[in-house]
Design brief:
This protein has one domain: TIM Barrel (Alpha-Beta Barrel), CATH 3.20.20.70. It is 33% helix and 16% strand. It has helices at residues 34-45, 74-90, 144-163, 178-183, 198-201, 203-213, 238-250, 277-287, 300-308, 319-323, 327-334; strands spanning 6-8, 11-13, 17-19, 50-57, 69-70, 94-100, 125-126, 140-141, 168-173, 222-227, 255-259, 290-294, 314-317. The protein has an 8-stranded parallel barrel, surrounded by 7 helices. A two-stranded antiparallel sheet has the order 1-2. A two-stranded parallel sheet has the order 7-8. The two termini are 21 Å apart. The relative contact order is 0.14. The structure holds flavin mononucleotide (FMN). Flavin mononucleotide binds at residues 20-23, 54-55, 98, 172, 174-175, 225, 259, 294-297, 317-320.
Length: 350
């Protein structure tokens, strides 16, 4: 299963391994550089089916840290296009980009400490004027007009991504960032069309998905990463995630990338290998949409079992592929499966 191809719209992935989006906090002015070239190109040389590049700000305030990646101007898209072009010309890997807005969790260091405007930070925004942690600065509550403009920023970022050669787009609606802040009744206390009922809280995400889908064609699928639960009473939960996924499927979203947590400081999360896989399984079984499983998946055996059990369609790996960029092709050789291997390295084939 791990090495069987899969199609999303007309886009075929050669195998089920996905490099999960991971912020590298290594940009100046949102620009990808030589580090990113080596970082992503080497994972493509390692045979991974799909790379989803790190959370990329749709505007400057959408970044988490001042060193996060951005795609709000043509120069940034140009720098990214060089990486994508090389990967397309030198591997079989497809490349996606995670479009993100950090909302109230922006303007921080990589470890989450808030940065003042005097220190290169910015005034954060959110659905409601509630900080992530009690003693933090209060975010600006977005107006309806500002919300509509943000959905357009997502669309414009997607236009640039497609022009830069990316094969797919993922909306970051997880981990307590802006879209997740709208979804959860604990961070969204609005009383207008964007808050209150389930239908109102999901509205911002649906509008972003609609805007992006207006510019994607049959060759460019759309994924959405969600946090299946806030792990908090009266918060966002699995039941709402299932309802949302059903609606996203009707909206032509191709896959739900199922993560969890991140919106409530101090939430208790019990970690174990594959701890988020049951969420992926529930969403897949109850809605029929394709899902990706992520979180403490470290071996091919574990990954194979998840696919065989019908718990997910794709396996996202994050920390393991930082340790082991060649996991896809190395495992394939050990299992006599077919996987891309650079022709320059032919003499090293097992
Ligand atoms: C260094 C690092 C940066 C991350 N940045 C992102 C990100 O940009 N977007 C995102 O959705 N998740 C991000 N994550 C979460 C991973 O994509 C993944 O969901 C998480 O690490 C669990 O998978 P793992 O157990 O395979 O590492 C990051 C994780 C790490 C370790």
């Amino acid at each position: 299963m791990l090495y069987s191809p899969i199609k999303f719209r007309n886009l075929e992935l050669k195998n089920r391994w996905v490099m999960s989006p991971m912020c590298m906090y290594s940009c100046e002015n949102g620009m990808a550089n030589d580090f990113h070239f080596v970082h992503y190109a080497s994972r493509a040389q390692g045979g991974i089916g799909l790379i989803i590049m790190e959370a990329t700000g749709i505007n400057p305030q959408g970044r988490i840290t001042p060193n996060c990646m951005g795609i709000w101007n043509d120069e940034q898209a140009g720098a990214l296009s060089k990486i994508v072009k090389f990967i397309h010309e030198n591997s079989e890997t497809k490349v996606g980009i995670q479009l993100a807005h950090a909302g109230r969790k922006g303007s921080t260091t990589p470890n989450g400490t808030q940065i003042s405007e005097a220190e290169n930070g910015w005034k954060t925004v959110a659905p409601s004027a509630i900080p992530f942690r009690e003693n933090e600065k209060i975010p600006h509550e977005l107006s309806t007009r500002e919300i509509k403009n943000l959905a357009l920023d997502f669309k414009n970022a997607a236009v640039r991504a497609v022009e830069a050669g990316f094969d797919l787009v993922e909306i970051h609606a997880a981990h307590g960032y802006l879209v997740h802040q709208f979804l959860s009744p604990l961070s969204n206390l609005r009383t207008d069309d964007y808050g209150g009922s389930f239908e109102n809280r999901i509205r911002f995400l649906l509008e972003i998905a609609d805007e992006i889908n207006t510019i994607l064609d049959e060759n460019h699928p759309l994924f959405v990463r969600i946090s299946a639960t806030d792990y908090a009473e009266n918060g966002w939960d699995l039941e709402q995630s299932v309802r949302l996924s059903k609606i996203l499927k009707e909206k032509n979203v191709d896959l739900i990338d199922v993560s969890s947590g991140g919106n409530i400081a101090g939430a208790k999360i019990t970690l174990f290998d594959g701890y988020q896989v049951p969420f992926s399984e529930e969403i897949k079984k109850k809605t029929g949409i394709k899902t990706g499983a992520v979180g403490l998946i470290k071996t091919a055996e574990q990954a194979e079992k998840i696919l065989e059990n019908g718990q997910a369609d794709l396996i996202f790996i994050a920390r393991e592929i930082l340790r082991n960029p060649y996991i896809a092709t190395k495992t394939a050789m050990e299992k006599s499966e077919t996987c891309f291997f650079p022709k320059q390295y032919e003499r090293a084939k097992i």
